[in-house]
Specification:
The protein has about 55 residues and is mostly helical. About 80% of the residues lie in helices and about 0% in strands.
Amino acid sequence: MPWYAWLIMALALGSILGSLLLLRDSAGKLPLSEEQLKRVHERNAEMDAKDADQR
C-alpha cells in the first residue's frame, strides 16, 4: 500500500479516537432532584414488572 493510504488510515483512526475521547470528557451527570430520581426508579420498577409479565 502506498504511504499516503497509510496516512489517510492513520488520520481517520485518529479522528475517530479523538471524537470518542472528546465525547467521553464532555459527558456529565444529569442533575436530578430527589423527587425526579424517585419517579425514575418507580418507572423502572413498573417496566421491569411489565416485562416479567410478558415473558
